[in-house]
Structure formats: structure tokens, C-alpha cells
Design goal:
209 residues, alpha/beta, Ribosomal Protein L4, Chain: A, 6-stranded mixed beta sheet, 6 helices
């Protein structure tokens, strides 16, 4: 499976790269993608929501009125949930939303997402480029050239480049990541995916295919 390498102007360079069929050419498993995306979204939740039930509210435990003869409903202490300032009934408590996904499932989900993007023609390879200093305008021009529709685009590079990161972070619908940090959630949120030429070396290692 070969893909032509483009330059930053979106023109062919005459070079091509060989892509692994085990990563970019499998039959996408939609259920595994769903599991990975659901876990990623759940893991982003802080789970710090909290409320005070009657056992956590400060107040006396004295019975505020006699049980019978008042003509109104019986009541216990001032921390009764029916009273203003009382505890909350079955309120939210801090909890951990983390969902575990096995490594093999994550790998299948990642490869399925990449294969689905490849089948839809949403993946391209761009020759390596960098800036001498952060330049948002220059990166914006490259982004507009490669993606005239300004749809959500994911740029994947081989290693961290502070100049590229600082140049891209304020551009709407553009996200730049290191290829080893790629996630199924990021892939599914992107309309187009651009790999730098050197970033594809990540998939050539046997244990990562």
C-alpha cells in the first residue's frame, strides 16, 4: 500500500511511502472503536462532583419538635433534607470514572480508525518541515493550503517540535500531536489526518504494528 508524499503546498514531490496493510488496510472493527472512544471520554471526567448529605451537614441532632400534636408532619433534626439548609438526598459523591481497555484492544481500535480514514481518503503524508521560530501566520497558510475546507485536521509528527507546536496551537480546527501519543478519540474527531514523512517510522517497528 503506497501513498504519495506531498510538500507543504499540497503538490506531489514524486516520492511515495509504503504503508503497512496491518495498520492502514484492515477491516475496521466499529465496536472496538466504540469501546476505545467511550473509555477515552470517560477517563477525561474528573469525578470531583460532591454534595453533603444529612450526615455531612453541620447542625444539632436534637429533635426540633415533639412527635405528635403539632398538626404538621413529624420531623427529626434540623439536618432533615426537607428543610432549607438540610442535607441532600442521594446527591453526587466523588468517584473514579476510569475505564480500562486492554493493550490489544487499543491497538485494534487505533488500526481500525486509521484503516477507516484511509479507506475514506482522509489520510495524507507531508514531507517533514519545521520553522526557525514560532510563526502562526506561516503555519496557518500551510493549513489553509493543505485543507482549503478548514475542516478539523490532525497533524502527526515524529517528535516534539516547540516551534511547530507554538505555531499551530491557536489555529481553529488544527491539532498537532506526536505520533506515539495518537489516540482513537483524536482520530475520530478529525476529518483529515496528515502524517509527516518521518512519523510513519513509528509503525515500522514490529511490536507497534
Amino acid at each position: 500500500m503506497k501513498l504519495e508524499v506531498l510538500d507543504i503546498k499540497g503538490q506531489g514531490t514524486g516520492k511515495s511511502v509504503e504503508l503497512s496493510g496491518e495498520v492502514f488496510g484492515i477491516e475496521p472493527n466499529e465496536h472496538v472503536i466504540y469501546l476505545a472512544v467511550k473509555a477515552a471520554q470517560a477517563n477525561k471526567r474528573q469525578g470531583t462532583h460532591s454534595s453533603k448529605e444529612r450526615g455531612n451537614v453541620t447542625g444539632s441532632t436534637r429533635k426540633i419538635k415533639k412527635q405528635k400534636g403539632t398538626g404538621t408532619a413529624r420531623a427529626g433534626d434540623i439536618k432533615n433534607p426537607l428543610f432549607r439548609g438540610g442535607g441532600r438526598v442521594f446527591g453526587p459523591e466523588p468517584r473514579d470514572y476510569t475505564q480500562k481497555v486492554n493493550k490489544k484492544v487499543k491497538k485494534i481500535a487505533r488500526n481500525s480508525a486509521l484503516s477507516a480514514k484511509m479507506a475514506a481518503g482522509k489520510i495524507a503524508v507531508v514531507e517533514d518541515f519545521t520553522f526557525d521560530e514560532p510563526n502562526t501566520k506561516q503555519f496557518s497558510e500551510i493549513f489553509s493550503t493543505l485543507n482549503p475546507d478548514q475542516t478539523k485536521t490532525l497533524f502527526l509528527i515524529s517528535e516534539y517540535d516547540s516551534n511547530l507546536y507554538l505555531s499551530s496551537r491557536n489555529i481553529p480546527n488544527s491539532k498537532l500531536m506526536i505520533v506515539k501519543d495518537i489516540s482513537v478519540l483524536d482520530l475520530m474527531h478529525s476529518e483529515r489526518v496528515y502524517f509527516s514523512e518521518s512519523s510513519l517510522d513509528f509503525f515500522k517497528e514490529k511490536e507497534l504494528v
